[in-house]
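Let's study a protein:

===
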Amino acid sequence: MVYHVINRAVGKMRLFRDEGDFPAFHKIIRDTLQRIPTRLLGWCVMPNHWHFVVWPREDGELSRFFRHLALTHATRWQLAHDAVGAGHVYQGRFKSFLIQEDDHLETVLRYVERNPLRANLVKRAQDWRWSSLHAGSRGTDEDRRMLSDWPIQRRPDWAEFVNAPQTPAEEEAIALCIRRDRPMGDARWLERIVARHGLARTLRPQGRQPGWRKAPPK
């Protein structure tokens, strides 16, 4: 199963404050891949958060990989910024959701690699050094070896496709999945995955339900 994984700095703190922070995290990704190999399909590191799209081979691999990644980075970050004992670096455990291996996966990968363009950090998504789009098209051989083949066919014009605007509906669908840890796929796949993994809560409407009544005072 393929997952979109995201985590953010605590309190909207800037996680990557200077140019040294980005390459340090890039090295931590490489080192974690060597220690806990997983199939990395896409990634993007932003100033206060990061995204990964991964395809684990076995149960527990996802948690082991991102627990090691985040712990190693938090320790390094606190030392580098003289913040040992000053509190948490990340807002909590990473968030993740499952993705159907079809055009839904393509949509998520495009969303992840479009992040710096959407944030107006670059004029072309591949110009952002800290992403899989740059690594795959302009990176070193070592950078490219970090990435695994996709379970779907990649478009030959992938970079141009990433740079083309996504629709508001596509972006909102992904945002909803991030907020709710909701799997992303078509209705039949979603029904099957929700039942298999006990994820019915991710489909329930947020807020008060119809017929909800406040309990009378005691």
Remarks:
- The first strand starts at residue 2 and ends at 8.
- The CA atoms of residues 30 and 142 lie 9 Å apart.
- The radius of gyration is 19 Å.
